[in-house]
Write a structure and sequence with these properties.
408 residues, Rossmann fold, six-stranded parallel sheet, 54% helix, globular
Length: 408
């Protein structure tokens, strides 16, 4: 009688493809921070650097991204190779994957191997909150177009501009789910909805942990990176800064550190009392109507909804609209003064670092001097004198020529 062959659990691959501004940065940071612990629980987050999945997404979609695409060559296949070699659950996550074409999705899913049980996860937030957030993300990536220009382009039914093409590629939830999940059983397509304002702070994370299979893992949840939002006057300030620093004034890496991280994320986003970015009444009406159509369509598809589709329905009460194209200039000026103070504090910190490094270097040179002996110090003193005394310089030149004639 043949021996029973033990049943092997299928390799599961969970692909989280966005959308942007739905908690994706936090999810990715927690997974990266805990990647060694996760392996002990049979879960692989394949990354040796925090932006590895971003580079893999650039490679998969052949996107140009400020020169980073050169680092991305081959990144997707390297990631997929690690997934194929892992017996357990693998998690891949980056929000720009939402923009992948059907052909790119097909390549991505096939790269995990024929025996992989693939699940697709999309996190989504109501459109009334997503539209202003997407414009702000554009501003934080050096864009300079006004808010109304952005709104006009994304509401244009033709959607033929580069800006509109990108926006709908990463924000049109039914289309993203269809592109990524069209070849999968609906029970393997998971839609995580972002709770409405006022919900418990950990509710979204608990939804993620449930679908990612992390409930039983004691994860470290404190992370360094974040992607917080700014108010309307603060966003206007950054847009105006962009018009001054984009023409070769700041390199991309300096912009990322000084403007996006130091000013936008760690300074301006922490200001309280500023009016929040919102939609003007005409665009809000359009967004509410489109949201209703999405909710009806998604409800008919049979996906695994983690949360409730009601979360995608915008609140009936519209807050006061503060136009970032015509802001309260006093509020912008106040944000600008706070930014100057932050930059001065950073400049002072860097001066202290520079002074400490000079002091350490001087100490190291002095120690090296002492270790080289008397004759070396005499020769260096003569060289220093020769820099200021023509006769000494002539003598030094004669000495060097004589040394050159002596056999080594």
């Amino acid at each position: 009688m043949a021996e029973d062959v033990p049943h092997r659990a299928p390799r599961r691959v969970l692909v989280h493809v966005g959308t942007p501004k739905t908690g994706t940065t936090y999810v990715q940071d927690v997974l990266f921070l805990n990647r060694e612990l996760l392996v002990e629980h049979g879960i692989l987050y394949p990354a040796e650097r925090f932006d590895e999945h971003f580079l893999a997404a650039l490679d998969l979609m052949e996107l140009h991204w400020g020169g980073l695409e050169t680092q991305a060559v081959g990144a997707w296949e390297r990631l997929a190779e690690r997934v194929r070699g892992f017996d357990g659950t693998s998690i891949i996550s980056h929000e720009i994957l939402a923009h992948a074409s059907r052909q790119q999705v097909e390549r991505a899913l096939a790269s995990f191997g024929p025996d992989a049980e693939v699940h697709v996860l999309v996190s989504a937030r109501d459109l009334v909150r997503q539209v202003p957030a997407e414009w702000q993300e554009n501003v934080k990536h050096r864009r300079t177009f006004p808010y109304r220009t952005f709104l006009d382009k994304i509401t244009d039914p033709a959607r033929d501009s580069e800006l509109a093409s990108w926006f709908w590629g990463v924000q049109e939830v039914p289309d993203i789910l269809d592109r990524w999940g069209g070849s999968l059983p609906p029970e393997r397509v998971h839609l995580v909805t972002v709770p409405k304002p006022g919900a418990p702070r950990d509710l979204l994370w608990s939804r993620f942990t449930g679908v990612l299979g992390l409930d039983d893992v004691a994860l470290e949840l404190e992370t360094d990176r974040a992607n917080p939002s700014m108010g309307a006057p603060e966003t206007t300030l950054v847009r105006r800064l962009n018009t001054r620093v984009n023409n070769g004034v700041l390199a991309n890496e300096d912009y990322r550190e000084l403007v996006r991280e130091l000013l936008a994320h760690r300074t301006l986003s922490r200001r309280s009392g500023s009016p929040r970015l919102a939609l003007p009444p005409d665009v809000r009406t359009w967004a509410v109507q489109l949201s209703e159509a999405w909710i009806e369509e998604l409800g008919a598809r049979g996906y695994d909804v983690v949360g409730t589709l009601e979360d995608l329905r915008p609140d009936l009460e519209a807050g006061e609209f503060s136009d970032p194209d015509a802001p309260d200039e006093a509020q912008v000026a106040d944000a600008a003064v706070e930014s100057v103070v932050t930059l001065l504090e950073e400049a002072a910190r860097l001066r202290r670092v520079e002074h400490r490094l000079h002091r350490d270097l001087s100490s190291a040179l002095a120690e090296l001097d002492r270790s080289r002996g008397l004759w070396f110090r005499v020769k260096r003193r003569l060289v220093n004198i020769a820099d200021e005394n023509r006769l000494a310089a002539f003598g030094l030149e004669v000495y060097r020529r004589a040394r050159g004639k002596v056999p080594g």
